[in-house]
Amino acid sequence: QVQLVESGGGLVQAGGPLRLSCAASGRIFSMYAMGWFRQAPGKEREFVAAINWGGGSTFYTDSVKGRFTISRDNAKNMVYLQMNSLKPEDTAVYYCAARGGFATRRGHEYDYWGQGTQVTVSS
Questions:
Q1: Strand locations in 1-123, DSSP E?
Q2: Mind giving me the DSSP string for 65-83?
Q3: Structural contact between residues 72 and 51, judged by C-beta atoms closer than 8 angstroms
Q4: pLDDT band at 29 (very low <50, low <70, confident <90, very high)
Q5: What is the C-alpha separation between 16 and 83, in angstroms, rounded?
Q6: Tens digits of per-residue pLDDT, 78-88?
Q7: Is the confidence at residue 27, as pLDDT, over 80?
Q8: How many C-beta atoms surround the C-beta of residue 109 within 10 A?
Q9: Where does the pLDDT of residue 55 fall: very low under 50, low under 70, confident under 90, or very high at 90 and above?
Q10: Secondary structure tally for the chain: helices H, strands E
Q11: Distance CA 60, CA 36 (A)
């Protein structure tokens, strides 16, 4: 019922910025909590950030606090992840996810997923 498409990934030098975007369609975007997850080769999927309905509450994993910012524009059915001060350990495929409830940190609680976008940080 919901389709998600990520964009904005690429190659960036350590310390640089990158902005990821996620476009949603199929349902009323403002009724869904949105999240970003990432997965590096050989590692489990990891929670990165989430945002509740209306954008009033945001949540981050400890390793990205102070560097990443999640935001949403409900009028455009878009969610963003602004990444600053990138580190090589941030290298991963980043996924956008949606759920019909409150924002959580657990991937299995999300209902819809995008195809992912690769972020590679060089040293």
A1: 3-7, 10-13, 18-25, 33-39, 46-51, 58-60, 68-73, 78-83, 92-99, 112-113, 117-122
A2: TTTEEEEEEGGGTEEEEEE
A3: yes
A4: confident
A5: 8
A6: 999 999 999 99
A7: no
A8: 14
A9: confident
A10: 0, 11
A11: 9
- Tokens matching residue 58: 């945001």
| Alpha-carbon gap, residue 70 to 7, rounded angstroms | 15
CA-CA distance, 39 to 50, in Å (whole number)?
A: 16
Q: Rounded CA gap, 60 and 111, in Å?
A: 19
* 56 three-class SS: coil
Residue from 53, 78, 57, 80 nearest 69 by CA: 80
Please identify which residue in the block is written with the tokens 């909590």.
Answer: 33
**Amino acid, single-letter form, for residue 15:** G
Are 47 and 28 in contact by the 8 Å Cβ rule? The answer is: no
Q: How many CA atoms lie within 13 A of 123 on its CB side?
A: 5
